[in-house]
Specification:
This protein has two helices and twelve strands. The protein has about 220 residues and is mainly beta. The protein starts with a helix and ends with a strand.
């Protein structure tokens, strides 16, 4: 029996074995069939507490019609997260850290993040976020790179209008990037977005998107 067939059997059996544990919302199990011969699953656990902790793995594979594994289709990513959320009548804040390791390709990342949203006035809300990420690639023998970013968003909840600005810098390339944008809610599930990247440099670029979201 090929490795791919064994994996398919495991994907079919594990949901029934974990049904009881999922009822307690402590086990993470999210299998998905991406195509006729490719599968992906996220599995792990979470520990609810003041600092919610979760850890697990993302596993994926694909095969040919004959059942042989496709080259470079395998994925085995280990990950872990720890987050803390604070909520008051006028604000919500979250801080946390996450780590991921690609066990097949020898790369990894550590990210620290903080976000906050609060009521600025009777007609305006504000959101802010900051993050710093350290990445390492052992296969390509790259030195660890550090990327930092921050963003602000000003929201008028009564009209669905939002103005945003963000910046980022990476020591790998030495590049500094910035983005300004505006978003307008047209219908409950329809949004119009416009953004300009690097507006204060000669390499500026703009985009306009119309997004429609459907939930089922």
């Amino acid at each position: 029996m090929t490795t791919f067939k064994i994996a398919c059997i495991l994907f079919a059996i594990l949901p029934s074995l974990t049904a009881t544990a999922r009822a307690d919302d402590l086990l993470i199990w999210s299998p998905a069939k991406l195509s006729d011969r490719s599968y992906k699953a996220t599995m792990g656990f979470r520990l609810p507490a003041e600092w919610e902790t979760s850890a697990g793995a993302d596993i994926a594979l694909a095969s040919t019609k004959g059942g042989a594994l496709l080259p470079d289709s395998e994925q085995a990513m280990l990950w872990g997260r720890i987050t803390r959320t604070s909520v008051t009548p006028a604000s919500r804040s979250q801080q946390g850290a996450s780590v991921s390791v690609d066990t097949l390709r020898g790369s990894g990342a550590l990210t620290l993040s903080r976000s906050r949203s609060w009521i600025l006035s009777d007609s305006l809300d504000m959101q802010s976020s900051r993050s710093i990420s350290v990445q390492y690639d052992a296969v390509e023998a790259r030195q660890a790179s550090v990327t930092a970013s921050q963003a602000l968003k000003l929201i008028h909840p009564w009209t669905g209008t939002a103005l945003s600005a963000g910046t980022g810098v990476s020591n790998a390339s030495g590049d500094f990037s910035s983005t300004v944008g505006v978003s307008q809610a047209i219908l409950p599930n329809l949004n119009l977005d416009a953004a300009v990247s690097n507006p204060f440099s000669g390499g500026e670029a703009g985009s306009v998107n119309l997004r429609y979201r459907v939930n089922w």
